[in-house]
């Protein structure tokens, strides 16, 4: 018998059979780039660690930085589109979306990623995933000019299609709920109002923040265009850094929030209890909306030209944004699990462990956002340590759980519990071992983004990088097993729909 969820409520939005079929087909199509690009980008990350461990000295420093750029931007982009595809799949039961917006996002993403691959892997563009100005347009002969243009254009294409996609989801929500209702203000004030699933509140908060970040990216790209076409001589480096981090910080956090939102909606199907909106849940997520936009200041602590007050705001809001949302989400997951007969499957285990990974990585991030610690940890391996934790063993698990949920449901092929559990434990055990080597590197003050560690003070970095390779191999084994299990179901489902 299929292990597919049995508690699914009837959809509030009626779709025709044709609409349903094409929406399902597109959800399944999104799975294909996911299962191709995830292991590819892991292999790129593995190459970086192999270079740092001196096992792959053939990789030049220039090639190392182009790989860092592709791996970083590729992973962030991949998990943004993956979480958005999952959100669109889940939200269809509450609101009506336009299929063309999802198609524009799909085709635009394929185009943008192809351009990124060309600029980094062929053109060796290597300014890093957040391409800080002026390095981003000052190659000093390391990469050709064309790769700068292709890289910036790729970001432009991705920015435009993701804006359309995010705006469409918000538009769909606005057709059913007023802004106040979607944000759950009636829960906070205690006034009467319609029942709004917490998932809707989280998606609304996240996508409003996302549009803010995308506008910031558009302004930044326009400033690049003015400079590259000779209309302006030079841009203000501090302004460019603020615009970049407003965008980058929001994008990364939104992936996390949307992934948590999926847990609010999908995990209850396995726990057998509903996850209702409440004063605390709506209140916490509204705080996120207020503070997420200014918390990015914590990325600029080292910029002495930034006002001290702004730095202080960065520290206070980092706590204000992280604690309420994480507490209600983790508490909610535990409350749903406590004394309930959870059906432990690939999806529910991944979601549960993903929430815990968010908690672990979040604590690492909060430590780093505290000015007193940041003076020690800034640009050490502590930084990739915390964000790889809340991604790889946090958001990624939640998203993979949702993808499996959809593929299992649409294919009708029941789960193989042995293979599922093996895949999960390989990813989780390998993942924690891999990030532990980053944390230890941070604790030993080993700088991040070094192609190799030759100085004797940081030679332990070489050893940690080599040990990380063992854990990465374990993660890869788990990822391939996951892809096997999900891929088969995806292909069968594609034939059915
Ligand atoms: C097993 C999987 C992964 C491996 C082996 C891996 C490996 C690495 C390595 C070695 C670095 C460079 C660290 C340094 O600064 O010295 C890096 C950077 C990075 N990784 Fe990963 N990673 C993995 C998964 C992920 C995931 C799931 C994400 C999701 C967003 C991600 C996003 C990034 C980003 C944004 C950077 C920073 C790039 C930059 O500094 O410009 N990685 N990764």
Overall description:
There is one protein chain. The chain has 497 residues and is mainly α. It has a single domain, classed as Up-down Bundle (Cytochrome C Oxidase, Chain A), CATH 1.20.210. The chain is built from 15 helices and no strands. Helix 8 runs parallel beside helix 10. It is globular. The relative contact order is 0.11. The site of protoporphyrin IX containing FE has 24 residues, from helix 1, helix 2, helix 13 and helix 15.
Secondary-structure map with pairings?
Elements lengths: L16 H36 L8 H31 L7 H24 L22 H32 L2 H4 L2 H5 L8 H31 L8 H35 L7 H17 L12 H30 L8 H23 L2 H7 L4 H30 L5 H27 L16 H37 L1
Helix pairs in contact: 1-2, 1-3, 1-13, 1-15, 2-3, 2-8, 2-13, 3-4, 4-7, 7-8, 7-9, 8-9, 8-10, 8-11, 8-13, 9-10, 10-11, 11-13, 11-14, 13-14, 13-15, 14-15
Bound molecules: protoporphyrin IX containing FE (HEM).
